[in-house]
Amino acid sequence: MTDLSQPVSQPGAQVQSDAAAVVPPPLWLLAELTYRCPLHCAFCYNPLDYTDHNRELTTGQWLDVLREARALGAVQLGFSGGEPLVRDDVEVLVEEAHRLGFYTNLITSGVGLTDQRLGDLKAAGLDHIQLSFQDSTQQLNDFLSSTRTFELKQRVAVALKRHGFPMVMNCVLHRYNLPHVDKIIEMALALGAEYLELANTQFYGWARENQAQLMPTQQQLEEAEAVVARYRRTHGERCKIFFVVPDYFERRPKRCMNGWGAVFLGVAPDGAALPCHAARGLPGLTLPNVKDMPLREIWYDSDAFNRFRGLQWMKEPCRSCDEKDRDLGGCRCQAYLLTGDAANADPVCDKSPFHDTVVKIVRRAASGSASETGATAAAREQPILFRNDANSRKFAAAAREPDAGGDNRASPGVQS
Ligand code: SF4
Ligand code: SF4
Question: Cβ(347)–Cβ(329) under 8 Å?
Fold first, then answer.
């Protein structure tokens, strides 16, 4: 396994003046304001041990991050979490972001998005709201988030349209709700969403813990794709539908985050700077912190942002592959999770010696029924692990002390 604690030498890792000449500036800043969240989604991408990283930046520190990122060249800004609205300074941050010239997006579960806050956010200059649903049915929405929030989300969707916001509706897809894709699209149309993001589950964080339950079958995906294609033909003008086939079902990986350290700069609640959402899970990668280092230095000079930038870090088969410019070797976090080495080719690629791992996972999913009955049966065998503070503390303790970990899985109430 590659030792991530040792910096690698490459052109992008040189002093800032050299690096700035070859490395483009970040375009997209994701401000993860908090890990606090009233929901407990089974597929949450937040780190398993988030309770160990919950000392949040102050308002003043976030304002500095926004100013530094804008000065670097970032133009798009997402406020996310956790649930960003648990902080009462979102309006202040949006106002400053708007003044700086960012295009701003609030990524929310809807909990806390009152009429008052919608009005204040509009006045502060917020451009866009992304509202998440877990399903088109109350039962599954509420089960998967372990909350009763379905009706609240419906009310929030109506209210945010009333305040004149464009809406992206987001729904994470997996084995349980793929058969509902037509109903999810109908719900988006009925609520007036301009965009619908049908985001197939990425198996990091909590979703990785629940992979056996959430992994869809090929048949489910093909049926959902056909439904999406039909609605794109009939309703594409009214609502733009995004649907991307998940990595595990492809033979070539995707160009993850458009390249490591290429366009995306995330900042976690505690100020850790992230080259990708899941970078905290890579062992040996010391994440620079905005409290200790200017953002410019983090982007151009830090080891973490240079570690997998460009092509120099690649091993075989990527190093000599004629497709490496297209996908940049795929996702580093997926490579680590499935092969134990983040510098390996993403095993989604069928040129990877570890591709069989992915094939086996997909085959295992197919061996169950493609119906919800099958998913429910799988979840009964190994109940779902919800994202909550108690479970996170166990992961955090296990990370500190390997014998202290435990399990806290819940049986689903999903009906077939
Ligand atoms: S995925 Fe669910 S639990 Fe995780 S931050 Fe989003 S709303 Fe909260
Ligand atoms: S071998 Fe590496 S670079 Fe080539 S297609 Fe596969 S993942 Fe991409």
Answer: no
61-97 CB burial, b ≥16 within 10 A, e <16: ebbbbbebbbebebebbbbbbbbbbbbeebbbbbbbb
Single pTM value for the model: 0.89
What is the distance in A from the centroid of ligand 1 to the CA of 293? 29
**Which residue out of 39, 111, 150, 173 has the highest number of ligand 1 atoms within 8 Å of its CB and is therefore the one to mutate?**
39
416 residues of the chain, pLDDT tens digit each: 444 444 333 333 334 445 555 899 999 999 999 999 999 999 999 999 999 998 999 999 999 999 999 999 999 999 999 999 999 999 999 999 999 999 999 999 999 999 999 999 999 999 999 999 999 999 999 999 999 999 999 999 999 999 999 999 999 999 999 999 999 999 999 999 999 999 999 898 999 999 989 999 999 999 999 999 999 999 999 999 999 888 889 899 999 889 999 999 999 999 999 999 889 889 889 999 999 999 999 999 999 999 999 999 999 999 999 999 999 999 999 999 999 999 999 999 999 999 999 999 988 887 764 444 444 544 555 689 999 999 999 999 988 876 554 454 544 333 22
Pocket of ligand 2 (CB under 6 A): 252-253, 317-318, 321, 323-324, 327, 329-330, 345-346, 349, 351
Which of 199, 177, 192 minimizes the C-alpha distance to 132?
A: 199
331 assigned ligand-binding residue = no
| Domains annotated on the chain, with CATH | 28-249 (3.20.20.70), 256-361 (no CATH)
CB 130: neighbour CB atoms within 10 A?
19
Residue 346 alpha carbon, nearest atom of ligand 2: 7
Q: What is the 3-state secondary structure (H, E, C) of 187-211?
A: HHHHCCCCEEEEEECCCCHHHHHCH
Mutate to test the pocket of ligand 2, among 247, 252, 348 (most ligand atoms within 8 A of CB): 252
Using a 10 angstrom Cβ sphere, with 0-12 exposed, 13-18 middle and 19 or more buried, the burial of residue 182 is middle
